[in-house]
Design a protein that fits this description.
5 strands; Rossmann fold; alpha/beta
């Protein structure tokens, strides 16, 4: 009998949660990213995207954040997933945080640029404002490659008149003691770095939420 009551309680709470999500009429802010936005190696709820929802609520901005980030994702993966996400959530703002895994895997930069361009164009065609979060590669990848990769993001932003944050991990990966802000793999920012990441993103993102430049 106790087990039956427990099962009914869980079912009731689940249904209530689903009903609440479905009845949430706030406009959506969709984040499409990789492990940097998917809380890889972090305690649930401690990543910069969840902190973003908290800040939006604190600023009384009527947006619900939808985190569609997947660890290991590339721009090709994001491009293939985006149409369904746009249809499901009809976001007013889309944040694209992809490209780092493309470079780590040595994928052609022209392909990365084309995918980011297609994603930006698709989101804008669906009525969303777009923010691109740029990435940079470490010096050991070679100065020429690092520069060409760095230029992918501003070129896409210029082409589509999208908002741009040139380097997402500025203040985290380029500090005097960068290992302080990273997990043991030296790739993924730790929990202490997440507020810094949000603080860096916020000035570029807030105008898209308020309609102010």
């Amino acid at each position: 009998m106790r087990r039956r009551h427990f099962t009914l309680l869980v079912a009731s709470l689940t249904a209530a949660g689903l009903s609440h999500a479905q009845n949430d009429a706030r406009p959506r802010l969709l984040v499409v990213g990789d492990s940097l936005s998917a809380e890889y190696g972090l305690k649930r709820g401690s990543g910069w995207v969840q902190l973003l929802q908290d800040r939006i609520d604190q600023n009384k901005l009527a947006f619900r954040v939808v985190n569609a980030s997947i660890s290991g994702d590339t721009t090709s993966g994001g491009r293939s997933r985006l149409p369904a996400l746009l249809k499901q959530h009809t976001p007013q703002v889309v944040v694209i945080e992809l490209g780092g895994n493309d470079a780590l895997r040595g994928l052609p930069l022209d392909m990365t640029r084309a995918n980011l361009s297609a994603m930006t164009q698709a989101a804008q065609a669906a009525g969303a404002r777009v923010l691109l979060l740029g990435m940079e590669m470490p010096p050991n990848y070679g100065a020429r490659y690092a520069q060409e990769f760095r230029e992918v993001y501003p070129s896409v932003a210029r082409e589509h008149k999208a908002a741009l944050l040139p380097f997402f991990l500025k203040g985290v990966a380029d500090g005097t003691d960068p290992l302080r802000w990273f997990q043991s793999d030296r790739i993924h920012p730790n929990e202490q770095a997440q507020p810094l990441m949000l603080d860096h993103v916020w000035p570029a993102l807030r105008p898209l939420l308020t309609g102010r430049k």
